[in-house]
Amino acid sequence: MTEAAGTLGLVLAGGLARRMGGGDKAMIAIGGTSILDRVLERLRLQTAGIIVNANGDPARFAATGLPVIADSVPGFAGPLAGVLAGLDWAAANKPDITYIASVPGDCPFLPRDLVGRLHAARISDDLPLACARSGAWRHPVVGLWPVTLRDDLRRALVDEDLRKIEVWTARHGIAIADWPDKPVDPFFNVNTPDDAARANALAAQYPDA
User: Fold this and answer.
1) pTM metric for this prediction
2) CA–CA distance, 146 with 116 (Å, rounded to integer)
3) Each residue's pLDDT tens digit in the chain (209 positions)?
4) CATH number for the domain that contains residue 181
5) Is the distance from CB of 162 to CB of 80 less than 8 angstroms?
6) Which of 19, 33, 73, 209 lies 20 to 30 A from 153 at CA?
């Protein structure tokens, strides 16, 4: 698909995982496969490439063979800092990339048509940004970000100390792409040990999810 050719996948794996007791949530096994590997498998066919945003020692992701980039804004500034790092990397290394498709590193059931449907939503609404919604819940971290807005995002993060994704995206306009949240919410995220147990049960019950 033409959208995939100009879109770079960005896995946001820079969280502190406090509710899991620390460590990398992306490495938790769901259905016998790490969440990270499940995410990568789903993104590879939808994008022109993938990078990982993570802070700390990048060697822990070396097995992926992917570029690992840290936040450029200090102090664990949240997902927007990871998005900015991805946009900056794309501008410096992949001039043919026009969009970043960001996903969290703790969602084991991501849709296999994610990128195409996000692009379809933004094109239909004639807006520069798009994010996912399942049921009544919006997922602002699961979205499309044009590389052309990276300087504006940097100003918001650095000069305004802005941290809320939806405040920034509302300034530019954001389209919504919808998915059902049953039988499995495609954006179910693993934050706690109980979430991991639930995700494993869902993976066993719905192996194609």
Assistant:
1) 0.94
2) 15
3) 567 789 999 999 965 544 444 568 899 999 999 999 999 999 999 999 999 999 989 999 999 999 999 998 887 789 999 999 999 999 999 999 999 999 999 999 999 999 999 999 999 999 999 999 999 999 999 999 999 999 999 999 999 999 999 999 999 999 999 999 999 999 999 999 999 999 999 999 999 99
4) 3.90.550.10
5) yes
6) 19
The pairing of strands 68-69 and 137-146 is: unpaired
How far, in Å, CA of 203 to CA of 174, rounded?
A: 31
> Which residues fall within 8 angstroms of residue 74, CB to CB, at 6 or more apart?
none
Judge whether 209 lies within some domain: no
DSSP string, 2-31: HHHHTEEEEEE-----GGGTSS-GGGSEET
State the residue range of the domain holding 127.
2-204
Q: Domain total for the chain? A: 1
Beta strand pairing call for 33-34 and 50-53: unpaired
